[in-house]
Amino acid sequence: xxxxxxxxxxxxxxxxxxxxxPWLAVVFLCLACAELIALAVHKNSFWNNPTLGWFEKLALxxxxxxxxxxxxxxxWWIAGLTLSPRITPGRRRLLLPLLxxxxxxxxxxxxSSWVFYWRTGSFLDVESLQFGFSNLVMMGHYLLQAxxxxxxVSSVACLLVACLIVSAFRRLYRSSAAESAAWSSTKIxxxxxxxxxxxxVVLIFVSSMGKNAxxxxxxxxxxxxxxxxxxxxxxxxxxxxxxxxxxxTLFSSEPVQGEIAAEDQGPERSxxxxxxxxxxxxxxxxxxxxxxxxxxxxxxxxLEHQGKEVMPNLNRLARSGLNFTNCYAQSTHSxxxxxxxxxSLYPLRSQIHHYYSHTDPWPKTMLYDxxxxxxxxxAIYSSQNEAWGHMDAxxxxxxxDVMFDSRSYDGPTLIAxxxxxxxxxxxxxxxxxxxxxxxxxxxxxxxxxxxxEAKTPFALCMNLQTSHFPYELPHDEPGPFQxxxxxxxxxxxxxxxxxxxxxxxxxFNALHYIDEQIGELVAYLEEQQLRDKTxxxxxxxxxxxxxxxxxxxxxxIPYESSVHTALVMDCPxxxxxxxxxxxxxxxxxxxxxxxxxxxxxxxxxxxxDVLAENRPPPEERCxxxxxxxxxxxxxxxxxxxxxxxxxxxxxxxTELFQLNKDPGEKTNVSDRHPELxxxxxxxxxxxxxxxxxxxxxxxxxxxxxxxxxPKFSPxxxxxxxxE
Length: 723
Prior knowledge:
- The chain is built from 22 helices and 19 strands.
- It has 723 residues and is α/β, with parallel strands linked by helices.
- It has two domains: 9-251, no CATH class; 262-291 and 308-722, Alkaline Phosphatase, subunit A (3-Layer(aba) Sandwich).
- The radius of gyration is 28 Å and the shape is globular.
- InterPro entries: Alkaline_phosphatase_core_sf, GAG_Ulvan_Degrading_Sulfatases, Sulfatase_N.
- Residues 288-599 form the Sulfatase N-terminal domain.
């Protein structure tokens, strides 16, 4: 017993010699312990991962400690470099401020990553930074609007701490070099760094082997949950997450193997598009206004709150036309969900986040491309900055007459057609890089009036944005639903759960404001006697969550609150007052519009006309959802029978819900229905594989249009309908 007691201090002493200096051993060991304690407090950490064994958790603890050992040595070597006699005094004066700025930036990244983890359960990775830099201006506007004080305080604090760290390390190195050499050695530091890398590699690849084997055998749906690879890459340490994801991104671009089956292949691109000549020359052609509303949930239609209708003008359109009660977005984040609305294409194009480019080689045909061939005037009027996620590169087309977004507005001057200049932001008109929806509608009405003067039918696509978090109304208008002021710490990623009623009121106020603008547009059509000649379509781009499944806002896992959206179509004399319960997805809207306008559906479209007589029967119907954001990397498949299967690619978790009995998705029933879970998982995997094969192979996208949606086999059809 005495020998054991004696060995503990000796063990601690020997372990502390892994650090370059005794004081650094104390500081960095305390940092490692503090980080492990903080992880233990959070519900989403390796401590609370039931799929890990005790030996795996022990290995993660060792890796966490070794990471901080490696950091201490790297900083020690940098401090020694700045004191090297080979560096001239002039270069040293330039090097030190640069070192302080770099250190401060790393500290800001480290603290921001921890804030991000505390709100989402994962640290920032390379993809997160890439997304931020790709949308730097808009992200900056949002942060200055929503988190100005924390951002300013943390930036100043990180610079001050960086100054102290650089100064302390240099002073310690200068005064204690001999003591440090007696304490430890550079050889030990190098070995610790190599050991850290080796342990991380072993944990990632050994844990990944089981997952990869499950994928190859088609049993990936049985994977229990996140393993060591997920912990290292996502939520063990900010520096580990960033470096491991950066390295893996370089080596994980291996293309998907195989070919698309002939029956799943899209039509040949040589197939000519047949314009309806009779419709092209008809004086009775209908115009179309297609409005995408930010975060418009399905349950908002006909919703009354505090004795008032949230969207009375939308409700009038839903009562007189078609109200689609079972419509789904294609994704939970706008840069993927919005382009689907106007293109009828699934968003999945690559294994990592895809940023649209003017040089993308794949075919795309937008609603306005088709209608331009039928001599329609075409335009987009959007309140958002369409450069978000480079969506403008996807939306632009030679057949688009006008592209108006928040960059294009220049005070009272009308927009010039095809104006792509980055106009200055107008005071009281922009909210986090978005334009007041009243201005967008006003500009759209002026454009419609020009088409009416020319007696030209028009296709107008719109995007209204007031209902994006933090739901701020222009000119600080109070809104009808109170209390509705977000005067407490809140961000897109988190806010106090007890404040959900206030945040929901703010959301309803924003939708009510959008509804007023829709009312202005409808009133203008009625005044100009265009109402009976215009098909109005209003759709949510995605939903909005209020912690129903543990997360707020959107862009995360595709639970119902984030993907079950509103869809309303109305045209007096053309459409009856009717509720449509047929399972519908965002990519179906464009083909359905074409069907109503008697315009042939383009072979590039992946959606279907859900009002056509030859639409797929409900028992064969399924839709697919894809998310590739910083807080959600998931796919989902939904069937007409109410089955919904979710697969989280980060945690490898699979969930099955029966929405008819459990609309809130509270009970995962995959264990009760293993055969159905397997079949739906394989169907989802087939869809993902088809999309990736198509977009990675020039032999596919060069000769064919995108693949068709997978269909149920007779066996799956029977399972879906009977279980």
